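Quick start: read one record
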Amino acid sequence: MTHTASLAASLILTALPHLAAAEAGYLSRNIAVDHRDTALQMHVWYPADAGGEAEMLGRNAVFKGALVRRGATPRAGTYPLVVLSHGSGGNAPNLSWIAADLAARGMIVVGTNHPGTTSGDSDPLQTVKLWERPADLSALVDAALESPLPGVEIDENAIGALGFSLGGYSVLTLAGASVSAAHYADYCTTFAGQHDCLWLSNGGVDFDALAQDARYEQSNTDPRISVVVSVDPALSQAYRTESLKGIDAQVQLVNLGVGSEVYAGVDAAHLAGHMAGAELVQVQQANHFSFLGECAFKGAYIIKLAGEDPICDETGNRTRADIHQELKQTIGTFFVHQFADQTG
């Protein structure tokens, strides 16, 4: 079914308490993983009681960051778990605006900077190794379950995933989606000028050769994941229809924009029809970059001078802060209701 974000935002939370009076707690630690040569840094946002040091996580010359309390005392209890996956060239702290909000709603949120596809370490030849990101996310689930916060337990029947762009693909593949290398090659032949295909081809990616690596089309399903929110999912044209039909998880698909405002590579509208019960949300007057953190006063100017994508620009008259408030309510409501249904 299809909803606008304004409709979804009107829903009232009826389960897990929103702890808006206190900022989310935050910590980070390294975890060793079998599929990487180096450890992953795991970022953790959690419901907090007291203490900690106030910090604008993700703050830099371009972005404002989001307020957290580093090292705050965890609020004892049993909570759902949400794994978070950033987009290509992004990073986990930049999405602290949504991670901290989910923690305030009563969830443990964990994310990492995916090597080879993160800020300052974004390589087209690494980006096409699509099997690595889902493995990162499954490793985060393992680490959260094996070593939870003091006084905190993870509800193993309530584990979800939230991803943006390439992260949106990553979380869908955890739920059972798989892609066809041939379909993606065809997409990049048809839409050769799109910035995703252009960036990959300029980086030396041979789309025809992708089909020779079986890992590109392998299943990355993690049966522990029961709720998924995928925002502007990358590789939209490459998914295998049968894999989408086989997804059992509860799925919310979010597009930042409506109709032709959404470029083909992240268009979720045609995916929703293949997933039984999937919810499609289309956010008015938003664009692909609206999911990134709020930009600082001089952020747009700095980006323009650097010749980068216009990541601080908006569509229409809405501010990014306004869009974020709507997304927090839309995504937070979905997770809360789905987890409540699953845990009773």
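The first strand starts at residue 2 and ends at 4.
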